[in-house]
Amino acid sequence: MKDYLNYSKSSVKTIIKIFLVILFIVSSQKNIHAQVQPFDSNAVKIDTSKFVMQKSPWGAVLRSAVLPGFGQFYNESYWKIPVFWGVLGALGYQWSINNNNYLLNKNKYAESFMTKSGGNITYYKMSEFYRDQRDLTAVFIGLTYFLNLVDAYIDAHLFDFDVSQNNSVENFRLSLKVKF
């Protein structure tokens, strides 16, 4: 059990270090591109009619990485925030139940060795079942977190996408009549 806790702590520390390195790299790249050039009256004029995104996709991802749903808040997709929080909350609750049942059955199996000549195999099978369910739930938590990041990235890219009807394009109707 101590080995598992040490492994968990070291894994969390490693993930935090990787996240901080990525955050440092992304922030340093923004500073490189944001250097101001001195004004030159003979310089070529820049076409200002080019498209400029209003929302930063990687900014939305970083916000969602820090707090799930914060990227959706940044992208003004407010209805998605309770969806992600609800799914993550339900999965977290399920993980907690499975973990408690796993520990309970594992302890009962260990106690059955002290009272009888052999361990009760039912407790062993139940502990393995709850351990597998707990691990599967952790995978679903990770996938939901990843989906949160992907959604923030895509939503920031599509923030400026115009879906209004274009009246300059004619709509054609195709009809098919079948008589018997």
Task: State the oligomer.
Answer: single chain
Largest sheet: none
Number of strands: 0
Strand-residue proportion: under 5%
Computed over alpha carbons, the radius of gyration is: 27 Å
Characterise the protein shown here.
The protein has a domain at 66-160. Helix content is 67%, strand content 0%. It has helices at residues 2-33, 57-66, 70-74, 80-115, 121-157. The longest helix is centred in the C-terminal third of the chain and has 37 residues, at 121-157. The radius of gyration is 27 Å and the shape is elongated.
Short description:
With 180 residues, this protein is an all-alpha fold.
Defining traits:
5 helices; 0% strand; 180 residues; mainly alpha
What secondary-structure arrangement, pairings included, does this model have?
Layout: H1 2-33, H2 57-66, H3 70-74, H4 80-115, H5 121-157
